[in-house]
UniProtKB/TrEMBL annotation:
<dbReference type="InterPro" id="IPR051531">
    <property type="entry name" value="N-acetyltransferase"/>
</dbReference>
<protein>
    <submittedName>
        <fullName>Acetyltransferase</fullName>
    </submittedName>
</protein>
<feature type="domain" description="N-acetyltransferase">
    <location>
        <begin position="16"/>
        <end position="167"/>
    </location>
</feature>
<dbReference type="InterPro" id="IPR000182">
    <property type="entry name" value="GNAT_dom"/>
</dbReference>
<dbReference type="Pfam" id="PF13302">
    <property type="entry name" value="Acetyltransf_3"/>
</dbReference>
<dbReference type="InterPro" id="IPR016181">
    <property type="entry name" value="Acyl_CoA_acyltransferase"/>
</dbReference>
<dbReference type="GO" id="GO:0016747">
    <property type="term" value="F:acyltransferase activity, transferring groups other than amino-acyl groups"/>
</dbReference>
Length: 188
């Protein structure tokens, strides 16, 4: 797959644009943030469009670096978001993603996450990229496996999710892992 980086905090893959989230994305974002199944392992359901606008302004617009909306190239439809939180001191980052349920099963989450790995390792010189996910969310763990990350373990009682203490799985990739995948041609 030919992938390229764009300017202004924008990334591009074969089928997707990853670009900053704007208030104009509120209606499309509300479609998936109001779906209990989509946000089951992430955050409380958005009950109205104002909840989504508040989230966009106070999270995505306030500090946009490393936060992208996931947009289908073919239609221009905003279908999810992806993130990379960078620890510059340790040359590492945590990634995450959310794709609306209507778009599950099309490989969009692995495609977006792989592009973020490319940015982190090839462009930023990071040494380690990891992801945490609620262990009950098997589909998210499967995405991490698909992009070549390796399971490192379980963090028991690691986080609070909607009033419940949950275990988090940890997957990670090092720059050496990434380079090996690139040489072998196994990257997404």
């Amino acid at each position: 797959m030919e992938e390229k980086l764009l300017l202004n905090n924008c990334l591009e893959t074969e089928r997707l644009y990853l670009r900053p989230v704007t208030i104009e994305d509120a209606k499309d974002m509300y479609e998936y943030t109001s779906d209990p199944e989509t946000v089951k392992y992430m955050f409380e359901v958005h009950h109205n469009l104002d909840d989504t606008k508040h989230e966009i302004l106070n999270y995505f617009v306030k500090e946009p670096i490393g936060k992208w909306g996931v947009v289908l190239k073919k239609t221009g439809k905003f279908i999810g978001n992806a993130e990379m939180h960078i620890d510059t001191h340790n040359l590492s980052a945590e990634i995450g993603y959310a794709i609306g349920r209507k778009f599950w099963g099309n490989g969009y989450a692995p495609e977006a996450a792989t592009q973020i790995l490319e940015l982190g390792f090839a462009e930023m010189g990071l040494k380690r990229i990891y992801a945490l996910y609620c262990v009950d969310n098997k589909k998210s763990g499967r995405v991490l496996e698909k992009i070549g990350m390796q399971k490192e373990g379980i963090l028991r009682n690691n986080s609070q999710l909607k009033g419940k203490t949950v275990d988090d799985g940890v997957y990670a990739m090092t720059d050496e892992d990434w380079q090996k995948l690139q040489r072998m041609g196994e990257a997404f």
